[in-house]
Amino acid sequence: MNLLEGKNALVFGVANDHSIAWGIAKALHAHGAQVALSYAAPQLERRVRPLAESIQAPLVEKCDLAHDEEIEALFSKVKSLWDQVDILIHAVAFAQREDLTGRYLDTSREGFRLALDISVYTFTALARATEPLMPAGGSMLTMTYYGGQKAVPNYNVMGVAKAALEASVRYLAVDLGPQGIRVNAISAGPVRTLAAAGIPGFRRMHRAFQSIAPLRQGISIDDIGNTAAWLCSPLAAKITGEVIFVDSGYHILGLTAPQDDA
Questions:
Q1: Which residue of 27, 87, 183, 213 could cross-link 173, Cys pair, CB 3.0 to 4.6 Å?
Q2: Please, which contacts does 202-207 make with residues 24 or more away whose CB atoms are closer than 8 Å?
Q3: Domain range holding 55?
Q4: pTM for this structure?
Q5: Cβ-contact 3, 234 below 8 angstroms
Q6: Known catalytic membership, residue 39
Q7: Is 232 part of a structural domain of the chain?
Q8: Would you call 145 a catalytic residue per the annotation?
Q9: Can you tell me the distance from the alpha carbon of 20 to that of 35, in angstroms, rounded to the nearest whole number?
Q10: Which pLDDT does position 77 carry in this prediction?
Q11: pLDDT tier, 259 (very low <50, low <70, confident <90, very high otherwise)
């Protein structure tokens, strides 16, 4: 069933074959979309380009979202490739390692600025650049995490950034709704990605997750990709401004200690 046949999708955030953005790109392609990829830094090209080739991506380009001129240059290439973009995927976040240890209270001004710029504002910047290419409507999707709603050890300034990102989803949904553009977020359970490796204690949390979550199952990038494909398809045509959890039910719990199933 090709839910996205004839659709054009632009995906930001692929770093390697373990990236959430890659899980989403694969699912969009599997459902019939043409998928263009963008990566953040030159050193990632050797990993990303073979992935792009495996899904016949018509465009794979570097774009540092911290710089407006690079966004403009990328979208010039997108406009020469496609008359319209139907799907925008933003799977981009960053915080300095020193701001993911110790107390949130000790976050530096520069660390706070950087985390909010890369993890939050870049979605707004991409939405603004994509809007003219969605004259018939479309779907914009970003990635968040439960640490934006509840305090999670060592997530610190990234939790604050994710809270701001979720607020941005709601405001963008209001701004873009009249044009038929839907804006949503997926809140995923812990997945072993390059970004997650920078969070102290992540491996311990990842190991414990399956014994705590109601479904007693871990989360894969394919699980996230399948949800993204649905959210970006006509099957989710009246859903906007939402945070959809893909976390085996973890977020519904009031007690998160491992349980004895006996």
A1: 183
A2: 202/154
A3: 8-248
A4: 0.92
A5: yes
A6: no
A7: yes
A8: yes
A9: 15
A10: 98
A11: low
> Which whole-number Å values give the CA distances from 167 to 53, 120, 180, in the listed order?
35, 10, 19
**In the numeric block, which tokens belong to residue 8?**
């054009």
What is the spatial distance between Cα 52 and Cα 55, in angstroms, rounded to a whole number?
A: 6
Is residue 258 assigned to a domain?
no
Catalytic residue among 39, 145, 146, 250: 145
pLDDT (0 to 100) of residue 18: 93
In a domain, 177, yes or no: yes
Residue pair 145/155 in contact by the 8 Å Cβ criterion: yes
* CATH value at residue 124: 3.40.50.720
Q: What angle do CA 97, 51, 92 make, to 5 degrees?
A: 30
CB atoms inside a 10 Å sphere around CB 253: 12
At 61, phi and psi to the nearest 5?
A: -140, 145
Is pLDDT at 208 greater than 90 in this prediction?
no
Asked if the structure places residue 259 within a domain, the reply is no
Give the active site residue among 39, 104, 146, 155. Answer: 155
* pLDDT for residue 215: 87
Residue 106 has pLDDT above 90, yes or no: yes
Among the ranges given (42-56, 95-109, 189-203), the one the predictor scored with the smallest mean pLDDT: 189-203
For residues 186 and 169, give the distance between their C-alpha atoms in angstroms, rounded to a whole number. Answer: 11
Q: How many domains does the chain have?
A: 1
For 10, phi and psi rounded to 5 degrees? -115, 120
